[in-house]
Write a structure and sequence with these properties.
By secondary structure, this protein is α+β, with helices and mostly antiparallel strands. Among the domains are: about 1-60, Ribbon (Cysteine Rich Protein), CATH 2.10.110.10; about 175-229, SH3 type barrels, CATH 2.30.30. The protein has helices at about 70-90, 105-130, 155-165; strands at about 15-20, 25, 45, 50, 175, 195-200, 205-210, 220, 225-229. The strands form three sheets. Strands 8-7-6-5-9 form a five-stranded antiparallel β-sheet, with no helix packed on it. A two-stranded antiparallel ribbon has the order 1-2. Strands 3-4 form a two-stranded antiparallel ribbon. β1 and β2 form a beta hairpin. It is elongated. The N and C termini lie far apart (about 105 Å).
Length: about 230
C-alpha cells in the first residue's frame, strides 16, 4: 500500500516519492515551511521533523536568567564560600610548596663530577699544608697534639727545611692531548694538540680531571681527547 504525503495527505506513488525526516512527501510538496520554496535532499535543513531552507532555518535561542534578588544572593553566597575554601587550603599548604629537581642522567653526572672535584681539591689542600699546621676551620689558640710536636733538637735543620719545601712528585697518570679542546665551562680546562696532561684522575667514562703541564691550569677534560703516555 502506498503511503500518503505529509504535506497534502494524498497518496504518494514510487515515481514521485521523497522519503525524508521519517515522512513521505511528493517531490513538489517537499518545500520550506515558511517560504514554500521547493527543496531537495541536498539543500534542505530539518528542524522538528519539518523541512526548511537555509534562510528560514530556526535559530537556537538561549534562555536568559534574570538577576533576581534571590539569584544575586545565591551568587554572592557562592563567591564567599569559594573565598573561604581558598583561604583554608592556602593556610593548610603554606610553606609546603617546593620545587623538585628530577634526577636526570645529566644532573647525576654533574653532581658526581662536583663531588669528585671537591674531594680532589680537598686532598690537594691537605697535601700542601705542612705537618703541625692547624687544620682548616681551627679555632683561635689551637695547639697541635703533643705527639705531633718535635721536642728533639735537630743539629742540621737546613736539609730538613729543603726537603719540606720541595714539592712532592706527581702521583697521577700522564696523558698527551691528541686534539685541540676549548673549555666550555668554568670547571673545564683548555689545551692544544701535543700538550701533556699530568695528575690525571678518572671522573667517569667520558671525563677526567687533570693539570695542563704547559699552562699550569687544571680542570675537567674529555677522555676521548687524550691518550695515556
Amino acid at each position: 500500500m502506498n503511503p500518503t504525503c505529509s504535506r497534502c495527505n494524498r497518496i504518494v506513488y514510487p515515481t514521485e516519492k521523497v522519503n525524508c525526516l521519517d515522512k513521505y512527501w511528493h517531490k513538489g510538496c517537499f518545500s520550506c515551511e515558511v517560504c514554500k520554496m521547493t527543496l531537495s535532499m541536498k539543500n534542505y535543513k530539518g528542524f522538528d521533523k519539518k523541512p526548511y531552507c537555509n534562510a528560514h532555518y530556526p535559530k537556537t535561542q538561549f534562555t536568559t536568567v534574570a538577576d533576581t534578588p534571590e539569584n544575586l544572593r545565591l551568587k554572592k553566597q557562592s563567591m564567599m564560600q569559594s573565598q573561604v575554601h581558598y583561604k583554608e587550603e592556602f593556610e593548610k599548604n603554606k610553606g609546603k610548596a617546593y620545587s623538585q629537581v628530577a634526577d636526570t642522567p645529566e644532573f647525576l653526572r654533574l653532581k658526581k663530577s662536583q663531588e669528585q672535584i671537591s674531594n680532589i681539591r680537598y686532598h690537594e689542600e691537605q697535601s700542601k699544608r705542612k705537618v703541625g699546621d692547624p687544620p682548616l676551620n681551627a679555632p683561635a689558640g689551637y695547639q697541635p697534639p703533643a705527639s705531633s710536636q718535635n721536642y728533639h733538637c735537630d743539629p742540621d735543620p737546613e736539609p730538613v727545611r729543603q726537603a719540606a719545601a720541595a714539592s712532592p712528585p706527581s702521583s697521577g697518570k700522564r696523558y698527551r692531548a691528541i686534539y685541540d679542546y676549548a673549555a666550555a665551562d668554568d670547571d673545564e680546562v683548555s689545551f692544544v694538540d701535543g700538550d701533556v696532561i699530568v695528575d690525571v684522575h678518572q671522573i667517569d667514562e667520558g671525563w677526567m680531571y687533570g693539570r695542563v703541564e704547559r699552562t699550569g691550569q687544571q680542570g675537567m677534560l674529555p677522555a676521548n681527547y687524550v691518550d695515556a703516555i
